[in-house]
Amino acid sequence: MSKSIAAVSRIAFLASDVLVDSQPAFPATSQFSKHFQSFAETTGRQPLRFEVPVGGDPASTILRNGSTASLVSFTASATSHTAVRLVVQATELSSLPLVLHIAVTDDLSDVILLRSAVPFFLVSYTAQQAHDNALLAFRIARVEKKAVIHVFYEHSGDVSDVSTEGDIWRLLHSEKLAPGASFSPENGTNGYIEHAVVTNGVNGDAHLTNGINGSRSPGSTESPTDARIPNGVANGFCDIANAPPPVSADLYELYEAALLSTVSCTRRTCRPLTFRGVDNPHTVAFVLGSLPNGLELDGIAFVPISLLTPLQPYKILHVIPSSTSRVILLEQLRRSNTKWTSLFLDIVNILQERQTSHRILVQNIWFTEPEQISAASLFKLLNVTSNLRSTSPLQLGSDAPSGPLVTVPHVPKHEVSYTKILSYIFGDHLEISNSPSFVPTQGAIVTSPEFALGRVRGQFEQRAQLTRSVQALMEVEGISPELHRALGQWLLVKDDRSKSRAVSDQVVASLKSASLQNAHVNRVLALQAHLPARSKWIIGSDAWSYDLGSSGLHHAIASGLDINILILDSVPYSSRHSADPHRRKQDAGLYAMNHGDVYVASVAVYSSYAHVLQAIMEADRHKGPSVVLAYLPYKSENTPALEVLKETKLAVDSGYWPLYRWDPVKEARGQEPFTLDSDSVKNDLQQFLDRQNHLSQLVRSKPQLATELVSSLGESVKEARRKKAAEAYSDLLVALDAPPLVILYASDGGTAEKYAKKLMNRAKARGLSASIGTMDSISIETLANEEYVAFVTSTAGQGEPPQNGRTLFKAFNAAVGRGDRPFSKLRYSVFGLGDSHYWPRPEDAHFYNRPGKDLDSRLEQLGGERFAPLGLGDDQDADGPETGYKVWEPLVWKALGVDNIQVLEAEPDPITNEHIKAASGYLRGTIAEGLQDTSTGALAPSDTQITKFHGIYQQDDRDIRDERQAQGAEPAYSFMIRVRMPGGVCAPKQWLQMDRISDEHGNGTFKITTRSTFQFHGVIKRHLKPTIQDINKVLLDTLAACGDVNRNVICSAIPSKSKLHARVYEFSKLVSDHLLPRTTAYHEIWLDNKLVAGEAVKDFEPLYGEFYLPRKFKVAVAVPPTNDVDIFANDLGFIAIVDKSGELAGFNVTVGGGMGVTHGNKKTYPRLADVIGFCTVEQGPLVAEKVMLTQRDFGNRVDRKNARLKYTIDRMGLDVFKAEVESRLGYKLSPARPFTFDRNVDDFGWTVGEDGKHHVTLFIENGRVQDEPGQDFKKGLREIAKIHKGTFRLTANQHIVISDIETDDVLQIKRLLAEYKLDNLNFTGLRLSSSACVAFPTCGLAMAESERYLPILVDKVEKICEEYGLRNDSIVMRMTGCPNGCARPYIAEVAFVGKAPGSYLMLLGGGYYGQRLNKIYRESVSEPEILAILRPMIKRYALERLEGEHFGDFVIRAGYIAPTTEGKNWYDRMGGEGEFREVAAAQ
What are phi and psi of 869, to 5 degrees? Predict the structure, then answer.
């Protein structure tokens, strides 16, 4: 294996952020790739790597993936295709920090084309030189942000001195060194020192003993101009009289600066020109190629060129002494696109500027093998041509080929199946225009599809000439009747293959027997090969799909020629995601169909042989271009046919490779041009269309909805424009009389905004000129000029105005304080929204609707006049805020004089999540377009609902929201990304990737969630796609981690029960995969994959349908006696039942759990799941499916707050729901089996599993993995992941289990745990049992602190526990920032749910192992109240508890709180019992 390639690969891997490697023709593999893989396994670096298949476009891959990288490498072996692709986009590439490493063997013909493409071109002839020049190239690229080409020979010589990884890093990041910088006389490294004698100077002037970049003086055996510099080179200042001004001087200065740094790193010479030979040569030979070692010729000096661009004239002149009479350029080339190479012309041009007394003979000599340059052969050639002014380059060696040596390409045996079909159908009429059989006579280029297309075009032109000659010949007088008849018959049947061949023979025989002397006869005989009609085919790989716009496929399609193209795709279905996600191959069919006149078919010989025959014959009959996409999945020639058959079946049945035909002729006839031939896809589509799902029922009940959903967009737009024009005219007439109305709103949750828009729509329906905006969108000065303004505001926090109204509120308060009265002509009315029960205590009553009341008062104080009294909407009314709104709105219309106008048009229904899901195109929406929008850091509101299905929530930094609003900037938008990881198990490699993602794309930390997975925060929009792609690289994804689908399936960690955990973990993955959405939107948007046939084959969801579920759906698997997943808090649960032999027998099934609540809305409540029966392991996934589908069809889609499964079961009744599930199953569930739980907390510390492997559970407070002073947990876990051979398990309590540790590795793991203080379990039982959600600053739903505050509260409560001897007693305490219940607070023994900053709902009485709901004890408490309540309660618990009694049981027995028997009764007897009852709760 080449040592040069190994050296260059190593430096490229260590230096680059992005690696792009060009692959050779199958079945060979790139030598670079092998080295990259080896380095990836042995180093800690993981640069992004992309492989470009043979025929692909490397330039587009580089531009797409390297535009934002700090350093990019491209590696390839030299080919003409690669060179041409790079030249085409040279302008874009030249400005990138890019190094193109191109390996050559014995021919520079292909790479010399790139000389003018980029600013810098380096050439290396030895392995050591390749190593050093690679360093130099990277230094130039990184510092100067310019592209560098590094061409090197694949020599096997050793690299004696290899730079370390640290040296490489320092070189790339060191400061730029400038010529002229001083250095010390001894072993100096930098500077041009005049009049100094330096022993080992690196960059000096003329008087250096071993100078590297010094000037020259005459008389040296090494240099023609300086005897005092034994080892001088041409990179110093020289004193040559009348030297021409330097060309590309600026670029050369950049090169020199990089050279200084490189030499100071390597301590080796690195010369652009190296002089070897006698002092006063008569011939100077510049060399671009590999010379034999030790070549010396009397009177000849050799100058190998290492820096090809920029080429400095004075450097060339510098090495040509006055004794020189001949200059030759030796180039190792087999061919050239021009007569003279650019390097030769440059040297000639430079020598013409030289002022000498004699002329110099300049010659260009090509050679192909180093062995051709011997003393004898070179002397012979020079003597023969001593006075020859040649008109073309001379060739050294009589046997030197004029073109490249070619071998007939090998056709893989599997691909012969398609060529055999072509031969079978067309026989002698078949012509494969790029057949490998043409290679020996026409060269390797003949197999190129682009070349073949040009060849076919030429054949068609020649046949057109033939036709014209035949027609002209028929008009010639004197031809025989037999010849005339034969020519006429040929014109009639010339396009019929079978008939044209027979007639062609007659025409040729008649012409040869005739004695005609005519030019047309000669032309027909010359073109007789084109007389028979042929079926012309070009066979290629899927490489044409990589760059459709500039590929040969585009030219073939656009040509309109009657040419057939067979494109073979060999990527197996099981390996479809292993390639570069940016390089989707299946677009060729869609691209061709969009052209409109191209026949397109997608076939698979191992799926339907008859379909292949039909498609090929139809393609041949089509008069015009035809494209047949042929699937042939195999990895190597050794792949058995059975494996090819299996992969084909998977691809076709899944819809990955649909079988279809597209015939544009049918479209011209008014028929359907597209025919779907995949039976499995057609059957699935038919079942989907036949199912009576929610959409069909909705359309039947509201026919107008069908029109809205499926009508033509163009017609809708036209109708909307006509309607808008009519409305504008009507509004203009009405507005002449009616006063304009401005509607301003302030809203956090969207309710106030909804009412404001409702008011605007109704105002316009009454003919008013109405406009709408947020309160903060208007200033006091602008508001003072308005006449009628209606304000709608909700209540936030502790009686505070919503976020988008606070600036105006503050301005009003300031104006009132100054005594201003700017609103003398303003007439206003206010409608406020609030919840009278949100603050139940009498002293807090003033918080109810406080913003609306304050706004109404301030406007009056500022001089405004009410046109309608203050309206208040109360969530506690029967219809919620609607009750108050119905009273207030008529008063507005009366004041504006439009109360008598009759409104006939129905008010449009609000857009709901159901509409958004149905219109999203199976979770596509406009997400892809939104990602391209750089004008905002946010996505469209409707898309933020869809991104949840992709595991993404849009958020903003609420800590700086006010500050950014004051600056006039949009919120600091970022995104939360949640990973789907069934069972919570990840490999060390995956952990390291998560760690890297948090640093590169997130906020430097990541969260272990209560659903046993990873969660990233602070990801900005432009990092979304790279983050998802990085997650995908380690075989994880985020699909269905959120949204109205089944979410991450969790299971018990149980480290001590290794065998049982393995079973339940596999079961969790099985259920997750079974319930996973099937849309391809995720892969299209984030991984850049697309459907082959575009809109021709629709996406569909066999389980979910296009409406998906009414709300989220959560599944958990628990293993008694540990309920660490809180099984009863999930929509669906599986409780593992073990038989007498310790084997997993099956599961008890639970349904109906759920935590989410809305403050003040008693229609919402938490609920624990019910056990409905037993199922076997095999039945489990189907049971999960049927439970979920029952929820899909019976869930509440009108009110999302009552849409969870728990409400569906309470509405239907548990027995009815169970009967529906069993009906769908087709059998009844078995009776539930006994089980026992005793805790839901984690077991911390070390344990040994049944298989002898060790496990350790670590305490990670609230799941936040980060580095803090004295607690470098993130770093510690990273170091453990680097050496750990087992797995990591994430628990549902937000902690980590390092699992499957071999006995030999225990000490090493313990050492790392101790080093990073991860083994510290010296915490109170309270802290170890605590849990919190994220809340502020990122969660948009948070009303109060949680994760940042709970540790502080625990600090204070645990002191109370320690005071009363309860340090080690476990009390389950949980906190959330809002009532949605992410941390499952409603089953904690004591819990706090945020209502406003610093204010919480306090709950007591939950079951210790999650078997009982707690209940509201106090509706609003702050920290002092919490401590005041808990102190006596904890004291009594310590003194009065029974043996084994837990805190949640005690507070019920002691009479503090009543037990919650079921979710529907959650509000009953809330507020405490007896003497502990809250006064407000009793009223």
Answer: -65, 165
Give the C-alpha separation, 920 to 1081, whole Å.
10
Q: How far apart are CA 1469 and CA 833, in angstroms?
A: 28
pLDDT tens digits along 688-745: 555 444 444 444 444 444 444 444 444 555 565 566 666 555 555 544 455 789 999 9
- The C-alpha atoms of residue 303 and residue 277 are separated, in whole angstroms, by 9
The candidate with the shortest Cα–Cα distance to 396, out of 329, 340, 443, is 329
Backbone angles phi, psi at 1459, to 5 degrees: -70, 150
pLDDT confidence of residue 1176:
95
At 593, give phi and psi (nearest 5°). -60, -35
Strands 283-288 and 300-304: parallel
Tokens of 206: 């003329």
List CB contacts of 857: < 8 A, sequence separation 6 or more: none
- Choose among 305, 355, 300: nearest CA to 326: 300
- Give the model's pLDDT for residue 542: 60
Contact 713, 1125 (CB under 8 A): no
**3-state SS of 113-177?**
HHCCCCCEEEEECCHHHHHHHHHHHHHHHHHHCCCEEEEEECCCCCCCCCCCHHHHHHHHHCCCC
Rg (C-alpha) for the chain, rounded Å, is 40
Alpha carbons 71 and 65: distance in angstroms, whole number = 11
Tokens of 978: 């949640």
3-state secondary structure of 1256: strand
Taking the C-alpha atoms of residue 1411 and residue 1406, their distance in angstroms, rounded to an integer, is 8
Structure tokens that stand for 859 in this block: 């406007």
Q: Which residues are CB-neighbours of 492 under 8 A, at least 6 positions away?
A: none
Return the pLDDT at 1095: 42
Residue indicated by tokens 């406020």: 832
Omega of the bond prior to 1121 within 30 degrees of 0, cis?
A: yes
At 1208, the amino acid letter reads T
**Spatial contact of 1065 and 999, defined as CB atoms under 8 Å apart:** no
Q: Which of 449, 423, 435 is nearest to 613 (CA)?
A: 423
- Please state whether the predicted TM-score (pTM) of the whole model is above 0.85: no
> 1287 in helix, strand or coil?
strand
HSE-CB at 1119 with a 13 A cutoff on CA atoms is: 26
**For residue 950, what is the enclosing H or E element?**
none
Which positions are catalytic? 978, 1047, 1112, 1114, 1333, 1339, 1378, 1382
Strands 1050-1051 and 394-395 turn out to be unpaired
Assess contact for 1376 and 1382: CB atoms under 8 A: yes
| Local structure of residue 741 (DSSP, 8 states) | E
What totals of helices (H) and strands (E) does the chain contain, helices first?
Answer: 49, 47
Query: How far is 324 from 1014, CA to CA, in rounded Å?
Result: 73
**Residue with tokens 């569906």, as numbered in its chain:** 1208
**CB 50 within 8 Å of CB 61:** yes
Question: Which amino acid is residue 905, in one-letter code?
Answer: E
666 CB-near residues (< 8 Å, 6+ apart): 672, 673
**Are 1422 and 1376 spatial neighbours (Cβ–Cβ below 8 Å)?**
no
Residue 1070: name the closest of 983, 984, 1137 by CA: 983
| Residues in contact with 348: Cβ distance below 8 Å, sequence separation at least 6, in sequence order | 362
Cα torsion at 1086, 1091, 1097, 1098 (round to 10°)? 0
Amino acid at 30: S
Render pLDDT for 1026-1078 as a digit per residue (tens, 0 to 9): 999 999 999 999 999 999 999 999 999 998 888 899 999 999 999 999 999 99
Q: What are the residue ranges in the chain where pLDDT is below 70? A: 1, 26-27, 55, 156, 176-248, 337, 355-357, 387-390, 397-410, 439-446, 542-552, 576-587, 680-738, 839, 904-909, 1090-1098, 1479-1483
> What is the amino acid identity at position 1056?
S
Structure tokens given for 1248: 């040994």
